[in-house]
Amino acid sequence: MRECSWPGNNELMKQYHDREWCKPSHDDGYIFEMLNLEGAQAGLSWSTIINKREAYKKAFRNFDVDYCANLTDEELDQIKDGFPIIKNRMKIRAVRNNAVAFQKIQKEFGSFSAFLWSYVDGKPVINRWDSEGQMPAQSPLSEQLSKDMKKRGFQFVGPVIVYSFLQAVGLVDDHIAECPYHTDHR
User: Fold this and answer.
1) Which DSSP category does 88 fall into?
2) Model pTM?
3) CATH number of the domain bearing residue 163
4) Most distant pair of Cα atoms in the chain: their distance
């Protein structure tokens, strides 16, 4: 058996691959965290974000949705200046914006997880790629979810970001088929 090669020699990337990536989650807190980390990644490498993950968690109080939804512009500027996170003001403000949209979905569906998993009828999409090169950057599912999330006011949720998000929270399993962390081997 061979594992996915994308984590390389980065220990944080390896831990993320082995313990989190493509594992189904129904935890709204984790889902909110990954939504925002994936948005922060836009135009950057995942290793950049994973290396700053702890700083993001401190800056946004472990991605507490209520806390994030109530941040003022001044507090967001303090976060930008006071924590070693990506300094893009639009991405930082998107956390607050996404928290507000997230809360609306929680009220409507009972949880964000219920909303999200309804797109796959509660069952993850399990791909069986022979190589990482076969993985798409986006899919019809990510395109539809992206469109729907944008309509609901989310930011930094283009179809490529959303595809990565779907992998992150386990709606899509894109481990290569031989990887011991693929659903078929768990």
Assistant:
1) -
2) 0.97
3) 1.10.340.30
4) 51
